[in-house]
Amino acid sequence: MAFTEVHDRASRAVMERLGLRPAGIIRREGLVEGRTGIHPDAPLALFRRVDLIR
Known about the structure:
elongated
């Protein structure tokens, strides 16, 4: 399992090349596109390995 900022296309592409697939959105402290600084409720893309999903 892994997560990254929703707007971070490069990290999302790496995760997909590693065999991870989108599994939802979680909210944690992080960066928000178009806003400065760290935010307490940033949307993060959650990824997981497809071969482990049953």
